[in-house]
Design a protein that fits this description.
The structure is a homodimer.
Chain A: H1 7-22, H2 43-53, H3 56-67, H4 76-91, E1 95-108, E2 112-118, E3 122-124, E4 126-128, E5 140-147, H5 150-156, H6 158-161, E6 165-168, H7 179-184, H8 186-197, E7 202-206, E8 232-235, H9 237-250, E9 254-259, E10 262-276, E11 281-291, H10 301-320, E12 327-334, H11 342-350, E13 358-363, E14 371-377, H12 383-390, E15 399-400, H13 412-416, E16 421-426, H14 431-434, H15 447-465
Parallel strand pairs in A: 5-6, 6-7, 7-8, 11-12, 11-13, 13-16, 14-15
Antiparallel strand pairs in A: 1-10, 2-3, 2-9, 4-8, 5-9, 10-12, 14-16
Helix pairs in contact in A: 1-2, 2-15, 3-10, 10-15
Chain lengths: ~500, ~500
């Protein structure tokens, strides 16, 4: 892909050149105040307006999803994605484009199937959870025990669970902030271990998703080397509903679960990094992250092709300005967000000595819909500076809110090192309709939403890169993330 | 299933008994005029109001889809459906419940897969068209030639098509009247033959569907014993879009198509018939039809579990009245609508001598959403009588419109014999999101819509069953349907 491969892209580039040239005299002026104003518009608000009409981020997602496709950790698809990313960053004008080594786990799905076998016959649409062990040939067959939580299976105890297949039926609530996912997902992570400890022979869960399609949602389950586990799969939501109704009407119900998934040896893989070098303070870094890997069922358009499109195009926009940003804007496309976060850990480990020069980090990993809120976590006294930068997002419908930012999953280790975090909260109302399913494909991309978030990232990155002073460090007591447990480098 | 297996059903039956008892003196009074009025409401408008609050039709769909599931012609699932139907009709108070013999074709899907193999690798989600031949082991691989119509492939000619895989990319437009389907479906029926005649090695079509899910839409293709054919499959819509984009960007594109489908020997199967016997003219018949078979991918909830629910529950409502209808209301659950209409042909052949005593026929085979129009085709002079009956549907939002009825697919042979047809046009805006896919499952049922259509069928059936005089015959020149070609018995 060249930087100008489509008509839309070419029109856009012409617009960047014209608009930037018109305001060239003031682009790159320090600070966030009145000095930036010229012709009644700051360079950041012009940047925002250009990004809003561009389809550059969408074109990046198209290229990644069409030309690479599924790219789970350790796969040939991920290798192809690394090649794609190196080529794309170079073609789009990035400097210091490189692959940085990451060791990743390698798990393969194989063939899989499931069916209610008694008292009626019904094929079930399911997908192994990422990291599940496979079944013996012919699968495991057992009576189903339905529960609503991890606590409920513990309460049932060994007598009720041994020899059976445990069915965790936990609905995912639809919410703009995506909070339904966090509330439901615990059974995906820990359900197999908890059931195995009580002698179960297998686990199925209701997909952690808000749709009604017969397309199961996969996702990582925990796998501890020395603890018992069992084969585990997610049922598509309609199949989960069917199983529930059959159990209500006809208990006992038996099902067969046949999973061909397996673990292979770890693979030497890579994060891909590229930079828009800063003109004034090139060693100070504003990090824009997304993850390059995807699950295997779809082509990873919303998770996280969208994020790749957002950060690559936002940084490219900064690189297209007549004057580069003062600090370096570094794009990091992380390996293996989905299966254990080894990309984020490897980056933090390799760049630990630079932690103090990472002025802030933002990750785009929340899909394709518009942003509605900006959150910050850094030195409390730097909040006002972020609020000033955020003023240029007001017209996008993005409000600066008081809550602490969390930071994307890949940024956890940087957060632990005190690097300030900025979150653009995106509308997640429909995100969990497609997340981790075969339906996560390019047609689900909303170009307007993607352009709006790209505009936000461009404005924020430009603002932080050109900020007088910095954003401090995250206070010690706030460095530990809560969403995914303790952060280890 | 008993007739009162759920709380909703039980409440409903109590309501029928109470309401019917209150108006018992006038239920069954002849004619459609003022004689039916009592307490300000006709028996038909009471019937309508009771049906509207009932969930009986939905419960029938649940039972069929949960307890039988997929039931394509010739399969064990269809055998189970016949047993289910005989039991259900008996339990719900029908008389003369019987299976009537039908010989059906037997085609099985087997394992299937597809992928773009050059210049990139992308798995494709596809489903063999019903009736396709299988591929050799390893499948067929070829360069793809994309066309927009049957005429376009003819125009390309043998030199451009021989040895290639033809891709028919015809979008299906969303429309309330479902007309987008009829406009797009020709390539499904005839595409393989047309491509085979020019030396193609395989065919893929864009699914005839309006959704964006990675769930392909199957459906019948034509198969003439003495004409060449090739393996043919439908791509899910997102996969069809992907293939189109890849061809635009990277022609030539090659794909592999591996279909394990095969033809087996014909099977002796059955229509299932049951009656609410008429009290006054039992040999005169109002036929309510739906089809009992489904495609194999889903559980046939909207196609045509919904129709089964509508006609069985509507007739059951008539049977629950203190006075039975004057004429017999006969429910016919047809075998094999999907794969060649042999159920409808067998019924017409077996009941040919009774054609003159079939006063009218209605089929429910348009899903789960509300009706909006009523159409009639019979003696022109009988139109006014139908309009009178239709007056009771006005409050349901169903208007009597002037266009001729067509009659459901299974009714074509009866139409050819002159039996008057009545159509309830249902809102098909979302029907082709699910039709013939794995997504056609119980959760797609809209209980309110189903109840409204059930109310309409009950009112119409009661009106015709109790009509003074009849609806005549369809004029000779209007007996031939147009949708599926000439009708043969």
């Amino acid at each position: 892909m060249s930087g100008c491969s489509t008509t839309v892209d070419c029109v856009f580039y012409a617009a960047v050149v014209l608009l930037a040239a018109a305001g060239a005299g003031c682009v790159g002026t320090h600070g966030t105040g009145a000095g930036l104003e010229a012709n009644g518009a700051s360079p950041r608000s012009r940047l925002r307006d250009i990004a809003l009409v561009s389809r550059g981020a969408t074109e990046i997602v198209r290229s990644l999803t069409d030309e690479v496709g599924p790219r789970p950790a350790g796969s040939l698809g991920y290798q192809a994605a690394v090649e794609w990313a190196l080529r794309t960053l170079r073609e789009r004008g990035f400097s210091n484009v490189r692959a940085e080594p990451v060791t990743v786990p390698h798990w393969e799905r194989g063939e899989e199937s499931g069916a209610v076998v008694s008292p009626v016959s019904q094929p079930l649409r399911l997908a192994a959870l990422g990291g599940s062990i496979g079944t013996p040939p012919g699968g495991v067959t057992g009576e189903v025990v339905e529960v609503e939580s991890l606590e409920a299976v513990d309460k049932l105890g060994r007598a009720a669970v041994a020899g059976k297949i445990v069915y965790y039926n936990v609905p995912t609530a639809r919410a703009r902030d995506g909070s339904g996912y966090g509330k439901a997902v615990a059974v995906r992570g820990a359900g197999a271990q908890r059931a195995a400890a009580l002698g179960a022979v297998g686990v199925v869960i209701r997909s952690i998703g808000t749709d009604h399609n017969r397309l199961p949602h996969t996702g990582m389950m925990r796998r501890e080397p020395n603890e018992p586990t069992v084969p585990a799969a997610a049922l598509a939501v309609p199949d989960a509903d069917l199983l529930h109704r059959l159990i209500e009407a006809h208990r006992p119900v038996a099902l067969n679960l046949t999973l061909g998934c397996r673990w292979l040896a770890d693979v030497e893989s890579a994060n891909v990094v590229g930079e828009i070098r800063g003109a004034v303070r090139p060693d100070e870094i504003v990090l824009l992250g997304a993850h390059l890997d995807s699950w295997d069922l779809g082509t990873g358009a919303i998770d996280d092709g969208a994020g790749v499109g957002i950060v690559v195009h936002a940084a490219q926009l900064l690189g297209s300005l007549p004057r580069p940003p003062e600090r370096t804007v570094r794009v990091v496309l992380f390996a293996n967000e989905e299966h254990g976060l080894s990309g984020g850990r490897a980056y933090a480990l390799a760049h630990r000595a630079e932690a103090a020069t990472h002025i802030a980090a933002l990750e785009a990993d929340a899909g394709t819909e518009s942003g509605y809120a900006l959150r910050f976590l850094g030195a409390p006294e730097a909040k006002g500076r972020m609020a000033e930068i955020a003023a240029d997002l007001k017209s996008l419908g993005i409000d600066f809110v008081g809550d602490d930012a969390h930071g994307g999953a890949d940024l956890g280790p940087l957060r632990a090192l005190g690097v300030p975090m900025v979150d653009v909260a995106q509308d997640a109302t429909t995100y969990f309709d497609y997340h981790h399913t075969a339906n996560d494909t390019f047609d689900k991309i909303n170009p307007q939403g993607l352009a709006q978030v790209t505009a936000a990232f461009a404005v924020i990155a430009h603002g932080i890169a050109n900020l007088d002073g910095d954003l401090g460090r995250i206070p010690e007591q706030k460095r530990e993330g809560t969403r995914r447990g303790p952060i280890k480098l």
